[in-house]
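Data card: per-record layout.
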Amino acid sequence: MGSNDCNRAEEAYEKWPFAMLLSEDDDEVFITDSSTEHEDTEHKNIPTNEAVLNLLSGLVGSGLLALPYVISKGGVLAIIALVLVPFICSYTGKILIECMYERSYYRRKIRVHSSYREIGEACWPGKAGILTVTIQIIQLALSASSCIVLSASLLSHVLNFLDRSEREWIIIATILALPTVFVRSLAHVSWINILSITTLFSPIVVITGYGFFNNQPWDFKVLPLWNLEGVPLAISIITHSYVAHGALPVIEEGMDDKTKFDTMLKVTYVLCAVLRTTFAINGFFSYYGNINEIISNSLPPGILITVNTLLLIYSLLCYPFAGIALIHTVETSLFSNYTFVVSDRRWYIISRISLIVSSLFFALLIPRYAVLIAISGNLKSILGLILPCLFHLKLRAGELSIVTIIVDFFILALGIAIVVIGTVASVFQMIVMY
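The structure for this 434-residue chain is written out next.
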């Protein structure tokens, strides 16, 4: 490295008090917050394969079980969205992480932002950062709550001989989820996610196989082109299923080789797109006429108990992923200047209790699973479609090609449409529910 390189690198280090990590080919510089290096148990770097598992668990998530119901509501348009949305989300995830870095000469990249809030502040100083992180926190809280509502529904069908109300089952599910939140890092969560994905595999095979071999032959005439009333709900649920952008900065920061982030993102989204589309189409045609918003509840009583028990375990194991991401977001966005908070035992306990209380609150407020994840999907559209494009257009204005600008504006318009129409539809569903 020449003297000019050294001088500029030193200036960068003085401006951003981070630890500089060179990639093997010395083409890029990655900067991560060194203030957390002393926290051995809080923030451990993870290899690419574990990052894939972390993101895969967050993406596959509990929303998978609602996809046959989504097709029944959205028809052919929902199937198109199942294929199109993951490609869009992969692109916006990539540009979101790009906005966390500044490019220097010789293709070097310096990480100057560590959270959604910092990117928002860089674009529009003042209230933009607070607004951004507020949306992110609410969305992650809703995602965590969806695991609780799903668990409650599964549990109520397993123990249907017990006379309990919908909200009582939610309280019971929250108590069951309580021990899972006392994990300290993504490194720990990744191993829980390995177990959760393993647990998910058997029920999905059973649901798919039973529906394919034991129900009526497929009749393509029952597939509607689209349903004006059901499309907004369907698109919002699909968006919920594919957007995990709130966790991407956490995952990218925790990777031991950040140059592989784009590859990790593409591999994960391709796997999810294939799995989701196949499962949704098979579930719709196989269970047509008896499609519950949680498809496992459409199974006959005997097999339902076994499948729902495994799915209950899976749902509870997925809960820490959204929970730890939420806590990490609060720590980095609201307490970034108070590093002592992260290692403080009182904060550790308070943050976990607050997570459980917020999850219970949203679950009791919106106890219907499909409506809850649709509302979450509307917020995720802001985080996964609208904000990344706005950030990209603002921070990379002089570097973007005409084609990239057109793509960004198209996704931006699409995201706004999903949020506006989806919010109106969700409000209507809540009015009907109450």
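Known properties of this structure: The domain at 44-433 is CATH 1.20.1740.10 (Amino acid/polyamine transporter I). Residues 301-334 form the longest helix (34 residues).

See the next section for split statistics.
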